[in-house]
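Form 12-C: Joint structure prediction
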Amino acid sequence: LAKTTQPISMDSYEGQEVNITCSHNNIATNDYITWYQQFPSQGPRFIIQGYKTKVTNEVASLFIPADRKSSTLSLPRVSLSDTAVYYCLVGDSGAAGNKLTFGGGTRVLVKP
Amino acid sequence: KAGVTQTPRYLIKTRGQQVTLSCSPISGHRSVSWYQQTPGQGLQFLFEYFSETQRNKGNFPGRFSGRQFSNSRSEMNVSTLELGDSALYLCASTATSTDTQYFGPGTRLTVL
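Section 2 - Result
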């Protein structure tokens, strides 16, 4: 499974856009990029998943350049409740099954 | 659609005892994965079950075991508990056709 590297922490303010970049130089052809959000003492919550270019849903956007060696999660207009740890994961379940390898994540602190 | 449920939510045991945790996946999901989360080691993959068979296994000692029933519900067992087994144990279920894992709220195990 490809290893991911992301910043340890980021601070932001309410109403701002937060962009978290994840590096995954060894991403394989079949790998998808998935982001999770986790609050203390809760299970990770799926945010968004993509393979290439741009994906957008109601909570975030995911930008993936053509070489797919990195990806950027964009959280528009964050609020205090977006304070959490964000994990970037790369992998392909397929026939080999589901075995997510979590990195250290990025701790995002949203300030008033 | 109901999410992943885990029972119990909190558990206190003493060293040497054994414990069984339960996970009910989202209806229709056949894959169940288990993770251990500690402050020091982060989120680590334990094992995955699919159609009652263990399909993937992480790097944990044999004291950690699991099983899956025909209704996809899964249990995980830890025998001869050690202080270091204190952690949040997370269960995730996956639909057959996607790579997205949906996590439960976790079981907080404290070993005294």
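Section 3 - Comments
Chain A has no helices and nine strands. The two ends of chain A are 38 Å apart (CA to CA).
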